[in-house]
């Protein structure tokens, strides 16, 4: 189940039960459910919010990798997504731009290309 879905929603009342039963499986995959109040009828809004989440992970390396588009997307969408990722990363870095040394873009099975920011 954790490999099939990108995110999970859970009613606030059921959070403890969900964490107890599925926490061991979803926790390591960083897919713990997001809480939704039972009174909120607008699930579409929560689904839209979840679909815009991008998870960035460094692991044990001093580099960051993420997916920001697909080859079938037009150039304007790719540029918009790339700029959004870079802006979000820069906003989270304590020293901002000075902590970002190099940026590369790489397609599947292609050589990386350096990008000036």
Structure, explained:
This protein is of the alpha+beta class and 117 residues long. It has 2 domains: 9-51, no CATH class; 56-117, no CATH class. 33% of the residues lie in helices and 9% in strands. It contains 3 helices and 4 strands, in the order E-H-E-H-H-E-E. The strands form 2 sheets. It has a two-stranded parallel ribbon. Strand 1 (9-11), helix 1 and strand 2 form a beta-alpha-beta unit. The mean pLDDT is 79.
SSE-based structural type: alpha+beta
Please write the string of helix (H) and strand (E) elements.
EHEHHEE
Radius of gyration: 18 Å
Q: Number of folding domains?
A: 2
| Percentage of residues in helical conformation | 25-40%
Number of helices: 3
Mean pLDDT: 79
List the helices and strands and how they pair.
Layout: E1 9-11, H1 15-26, E2 34-36, H2 43-51, H3 75-92, E3 104-105, E4 113-114
Parallel strand pairs: 1-2
Antiparallel strand pairs: 3-4
List keywords for this structure.
single chain, 117 residues, alpha+beta, 2 domains, 4 strands, elongated
Q: How is this structure best summarized?
A:
With 117 residues, the chain is of the alpha+beta class. The protein has three helices and four strands, in the order βαβααββ.
């Amino acid at each position: 189940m954790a490999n099939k879905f990108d995110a999970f929603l859970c009613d606030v009342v059921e959070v403890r039960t969900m964490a107890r039963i599925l926490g061991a499986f979803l926790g390591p995959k960083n897919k713990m459910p997001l809480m939704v109040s039972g009174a909120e009828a607008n699930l579409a809004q929560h689904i839209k919010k979840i679909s815009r989440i991008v998870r960035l992970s460094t692991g044990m390396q001093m580099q960051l990798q993420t997916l920001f588009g697909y080859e079938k997307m037009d150039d304007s969408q790719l540029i918009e997504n790339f700029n959004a990722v870079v802006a979000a990363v820069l906003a989270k870095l304590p020293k901002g731009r000075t902590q970002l040394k190099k940026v590369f873009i790489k397609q599947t099975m292609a050589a990386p290309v350096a990008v000036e920011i």
